[in-house]
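Re: that chain you flagged

S.,

Sorry for the slow reply, it's been a week of failed gels. I finally had a moment to sit down with the sequence you sent. For the record, here it is as I used it:
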Amino acid sequence: MTHTPVEESLFQIICCYHQYAAREGDVETLSLKELKALLMDNVPCFMESLGRKEPYYISELFRAADKNRDNQICFDEFLFVLGRLLRDYHLLYHRQLCTCYCTRHSLH
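Prediction finished late last night. Pasting the structure tokens below so you have them in one place:
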């Protein structure tokens, strides 16, 4: 059976996480350096469009996700990071739709 695009995307996220987690230290967790590399290498347009390239954003995201305060992001904590990014991008998507609608209907 062939995987759906969403299933394939989920598999790629898992593979990406483990690829970056294995770079240094604990192979099951991401350091701040590894998280930054993962985000900047794999979702640069996403980070740019959200205005999230600044180092403080990634540091704050890391701090908020690191629930057990061990200075590492386990996979469950990484899901928090993904959720935050998806939420922010979803809001941007709605703003773009609203802008497009307003432009089309001369509501500016």
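What I noticed first: The chain has a mean pLDDT of 88.

Talk soon,
D.
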